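Problem statement: downstream parser choked on a complex file, so we are re-checking the raw output for the dinuclear copper ion run. The parser issue turned out to be on our end (a line-ending mismatch), but while we're here, posting the original submission so the record is complete.
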Amino acid sequence: MTEETSKVLGAASGLGRRRFLHSAAAVGVSAVGAMGLAGCNENKGPAGGGASGAGAAASGGGSGEHKVGGAGSVEVKPGQLDTHYGLWSSGHTGDARVIGIPSGRELLRIPCFVPDALIGWGLTNESKAVMGTKADGSLEYTVADTHHIHASYKDGIYDGKYAWINDKINARLARFRLDYMVCDKITKIPNIQGFHGIFPDKRDPVDPAINYTTRVFCGQEFHVPMPNKGKDLEDPTKYHCLFTCVDAETMDVRWQARIDGNCDLVATSFDGKLAASNQYNTENGVHFAEMMSAERDACLFFNIARIEQAIKDGKATTIGDSKVPVVDCTVEANKDPKTALSVRVSVPKNPHGVNATPDGKYFICSGKLSPTATVIELQKVLDWFDGKLDDIEKAIVAEPEIGLGPLHTTFDGRGNAYTTLFLDSQVVKWNIDTAIKKHAGDKALNPVVDRLDVMYQPGHINATQAETIEADGVWMAVGNKFSKDRFLPVGPMHPENDQLVDITGDKMILAHDNAVRPEPHDFVIFKRDWIHTKQVYALDDSPIAVKEPKATGVTREGKKVTVRMASIAPTYYPIEFNVKVGDEVTLILTNLDKVEDLTHGFALPEYNVQFLVNPLETKSVTFKIDKPGVFWFYCTNFCHALHLEMRGRMIVEA
Ligand code: K7E
Ligand code: CUA
Ligand code: CA
């Protein structure tokens, strides 16, 4: 297995897993001329997994038994509920998932960008209106790649109202209402490609009276000619990236900011003043070798109040046909701290990930190709904008060496950071204050507190409530990009491995493996009482609801036929209707059952129709009648002892 894995990954065969990972890491790092490995290995504390296969067993990862720490058991027994909700992005399945923590159970998938056959997303008129259609009524896009999901805030904690998720492929931002856990809006972001990081405001920086989320910030990773209309293809000065601000309520694009280099991940400050994005391509490179040519890239900070003032003052331009105001956040135009809209702080070599600490004081960027994390003090960045800090590089207050391939960081609310090390296949726990003291001169200090082997190659990481001011330091989930030998083999397509770690003690305790369908990226986890979902719809949620069986029936205007239907277990009203070849039928179905969990389906053979209606929910579909016959529509969702009998006829005369 090890040998096979090594071969698959292109390394020499016969190496142990850990040795293989390290040799791969060494090749990768030396090839790009990053910092040496020696310093990094020195940093491995006694608890470190080390470079041998024994490390996994030593830290509990390889053994079958689960040690129970302060967080308790991962087992959620019958009759009990998970303590936390997790919102997971799904990656290239293009949707989101709701996961119970600590059980790791998938409770729901929420479709947004791509069709979903279960609920009829992409088939019903209501979902198509959210997704967007071409002139012929077909969907504009049917693929998506979701990476980052974040919930709306009030005063630094989640308010349970919304969550947002990005589509990297087609540059769309989707919003979920968290009361029904459904997608209610999708916005296409103009001018950009490679829409990657997102983060909402945690407070409103302009009007302190409005203490709720008002913006969602969006980063562009791939630079393109602007406008991208087939001209200036080889002129690097015409290629740009934009940082975009979307209104959280209306979902309209408020403004964009033109930058040098690219945006990768996005974070916002807890005081609402700054948004930040790590940049791995400050070189504006086209090929990866060019993108790795600089020793340091950057974290780019945006001064939100100044940008919005500049737009009010009429200092914005536009790009191509887009009407969105665009301000200039390039380096050259923002040298004077007194007027700057943005500023760059340097970060070593192709950083990945930027996260704000729950105490609101620091932003942490991971080195990716450098074995370091960079700690940037928010107050110092603000001081620079106020003309009180002569050199922005002084905002860097620590740069500890933590291990190979650092990607994302999370927090326990007790001053510790936890960073995934992709190449080392570890999570490293390190103390932020110790790192700052070391940077200030006390070289004998070692900020690394603990290391935990994870299986394998972790990307995103998040601890319970860690993106809020109430990080509780109980559980931490680690999204491993490879599962290799961890689960029963299922052929070449492997699941991923989301691992759950108890972080209540000094040492991290690996508690649980959870196979997941590829491939979630980011996720957030929070206390279950931070959201209150509604278990049934209200009839008035839909303007076209069929409110009682008496209101059902068929109406015709020329070839346009409307069929109003209702469902009450175990029957539909009406149980049959007649239409003619050439008709365009709009079928509206309201589920009049109001009992929790009493969901019906509606499937229509040969007409490619299937969708679900939850209690008191209304949906509609429109289709052309193109073949005569009897077509039994039936309920697809087990609802009643007479579920199989819940069916009726659509009759089409020849
Ligand atoms: Cu996968 Cu957040 Cu798109 Cu890092 S990004 S792993
Ligand atoms: Cu209604 Cu099954
Ligand atoms: Ca770079």
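For whoever reads this later: Residues 1-64 have pLDDT under 50 and may be disordered.
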